[in-house]
Design goal:
- Strands 1, 3, 4, 6, 11, 12, 13 and 15 form an 8-stranded antiparallel β-sheet that branches.
- The chain is mostly beta strands and 287 residues long.
- It has a single domain, classed as Jelly Rolls (Sandwich), CATH 2.60.120.200.
- It is built from 4 helices and 16 strands.
- The N terminus is likely disordered.
Length: 287
């Protein structure tokens, strides 16, 4: 469930109104947005759980808005027969021309692998889906799902292994998210009409309630505020070190890991979908 409304940020404010964020706990960093008691902050703020039953799912969002960041979250996904359920974890701004960076975990029949669905929206335009099987059971233990978003690129990682990069190719005419601050959102909801095998497998409500659990949130990020210290203007040695993610990019090892993940675990890539793009792949696929 994605709640959107109009919001505008001007590019010339980017270097003026944000400050560095640090790790906290769920009470400090997040707020429950829907689902009533189905969403719960636990362990004195050290973990959070979302639950889905036949009446409703649940969700939360960050209290802060971020403009660039390196964000980690550990998730343990719905176990057993989770077909029809989707656990969404993403960054998004608001409005019809919103930016968005998505992790979505599509539930499965017991014994089948989860599908990790990724997407990038810029100026309201998405259609950049890449999907992967995971190389582990994401329901047995917590795993870390990370987004690095800086002026150069967006990198999706799983347990420290990069699986996808979306580069800033504005020089090629491709929009890039850099002017709109985004909140972190997450939700657990019923998507039986499309999520599992295109909606062929429906949610088995006899298995409900379904629960996903979160812990170890960490954000090295720039928080959008009305006033504060610029991420880029504070030149102290300690801040320069803590802001190294603003300049971070993939090295040869990181590129090799993306190739490994995509060769062995990618199951869909919009860049190679000739039915959707009969005139040739989008510019970012070949630049």
């Amino acid at each position: 469930m994605k709640i959107k409304g109009p919001i505008v940020f001007l590019s010339h404010l980017v270097a003026t109104y944000f400050v560095v964020a640090s790790a906290g706990n769920f009470y400090q960093d997040f707020e429950i947005t829907w689902g009533d008691s189905r969403a719960k902050i636990l362990e004195n703020g050290q973990s959070l759980s979302l639950t889905l039953d036949k009446a409703s799912g649940s969700g939360f969002r960050s209290k802060n808005e971020y403009l660039f960041g390196k964000i980690d979250m550990q998730l343990k996904l719905v176990a057993g027969n989770s077909a029809g359920t989707v656990t969404a974890y993403y960054l998004s701004s608001l409005g019809s021309t919103h930016d968005e960076i998505d992790f979505e975990f599509l539930g499965n029949l017991s014994g089948d692998p989860y599908i990790l669905h990724t997407n990038v929206f810029t100026q309201g335009k998405g259609n950049r889906e890449q999907q992967f099987y995971l190389w582990f059971d994401p329901t047995k233990d917590f795993h870390t799902y990370s987004l690095l978003w800086n002026p150069q690129s967006i990198i999706f990682s799983v347990d420290g292994t990069p699986i996808r990069e979306f580069k800033n190719l504005e020089s090629k005419g491709v929009d890039y998210p850099k002017n709109q601050a985004m909140r972190i959102y997450s939700s657990l909801w019923d998507a039986e009409n499309w999520a599992t095998r295109g909606g062929l497998v429906k949610t088995d409500w006899a298995q409900a309630p379904f629960t996903a659990t979160y812990r170890n949130f960490n954000a090295q990020a720039c928080v959008w505020t009305s006033s504060g210290t610029s991420c880029s203007s504070n030149k102290s040695p300690s801040s320069s070190s803590s802001q190294s993610w603003l300049r971070e990019s993939l090295d040869s090892n990181g590129i090799a890991k993306i190739h490994w993940a995509q060769k062995n675990y990618m199951i869909y890539n919009y860049c190679t979908d000739t039915k959707r793009f009969p005139q040739g792949p989008p510019v970012e696929c070949i630049a």
